[in-house]
Amino acid sequence: MTRNLTAIIQAEDGGFVALCPQLDVCSQGDTVEQARANLQEALELFFETAPSDEVARRRGSHVVMQKSEPAGTITVPVPDHVELRRGTLRSIIRQSGLEKAEFETD
After folding, report:
1. CA dist 6 to 9, 44, 99, Å?
2. 25-39: per-residue pLDDT in tens?
3. Where would you tag: which of 25, 30, 82, 103 has the fewest CB atoms within 10 A of its CB?
4. Which ranges constitute the DSSP H helices of 8-85?
5. Domain around 24
6. How far apart are CA 41 and CA 29, in angstroms?
7. What is the helix, strand, coil percentage profile of the chain, to 5?
8. Does residue 68 share a domain with residue 44?
9. Dihedral (C-alpha) 76, 82, 85, 89: value to the nearest 10 degrees?
10. For residue 42, what pLDDT is reported?
11. Are residues 55 and 69 in the same domain?
């Protein structure tokens, strides 16, 4: 089975830390490639050994979106739905600290 998951890889203490925020599984490596490969292996082991209710609990109904800015990291939980209601989208934009104008098209 193929799964599309997010990997966040950041430099830390002379190496790299890789995190899958949807499942809260992480790993590390000396290079970006090694950290990614180690995370992939950790995720494969998680899916092989975790009870199905644990997988469902960790997947949850939201995805955590993050963006690094010079002033810090913006973190916003976003419902993992096919379609968002207009009010929900407004709330996400407000929580992100971004201006509504950044989403408007000409």
Report:
1. 10, 14, 25
2. 999 999 999 999 999
3. 82
4. 32-49, 52-59
5. 8-59
6. 12
7. 40, 30, 30
8. no
9. 30
10. 95
11. no
